[in-house]
Amino acid sequence: MNTELKISQFDLYEADYYLWLQDTIEKLKHQNYEQVDWENLLDEIEDMPKRERRSLESNLVVVLLHLLKWQYQFSQRSGSWSGSIIEHRRRIRKALRDSPSLKRYLEEVLEECYESAVQQASAETELPIGEFPKECPYSIAEVLEADLSSFE
């Protein structure tokens, strides 16, 4: 660790997360295990799956939101909506390539994410919630791959 910093591992974790990560990596590479901040490292490792799932959910909500707006507010269609769909689909596909086991999770949260997307779509379009289907009308395959012309 940088000798200018005279703080404990816990304080480093709280003060500069990035520096703490770099320091921890160096200690692990050099097998300096007795100096590793194990408590915070284990907390971080335990939180990683939660962060991955939250990110996946967030991207799914954005895709669903823009698909709903694309389909139900066709007069307002814009390049930013299609660009957002493309970008968030890319993020989801990349996450699934890196962690294929997340595909099952994506299917499990589709309805919950759809409900969030409907609430936001209603707020953004000023259409009543009842204007949108009660259950998600899209399959995971459609959410991730379908050409936007199939939503017209």
How are the SSEs ordered, and which strands pair?
Layout: H1 9-15, H2 17-29, H3 38-72, H4 79-98, H5 102-125, H6 140-145
Helix pairs in contact: 1-2, 3-4, 3-5
Task: Provide key terms for this protein.
152 residues, mainly alpha, 2 domains, 0% strand, elongated, disordered N terminus
Tell me what the structure shows.
It is elongated and about 60 Å long. The N terminus is likely disordered. It folds into 2 domains: 36 residues; 103 residues, no CATH class. With 152 residues, it is mainly α.
In short:
The model is unreliable at 1-5 (pLDDT under 50). This protein has six helices and no strands. It is mostly helical and 152 residues long.
Number of domains: 2
Q: Alpha-carbon distance between the termini? A: 57 Å
Note poorly predicted spans. 1-5
- Helix-residue proportion: 55-70%
Shape: elongated
Strand-residue proportion: under 5%
Structural class category: mainly alpha
Radius of gyration: 21 Å
Q: With helices defined by DSSP (H or I, 4 residues minimum), what is the helix count?
A: 6
Largest sheet: none
Task: Give the integer mean of the pLDDT values.
Answer: 89
Record field, number of beta strands: 0
Provide the succession of SSEs: HHHHHH
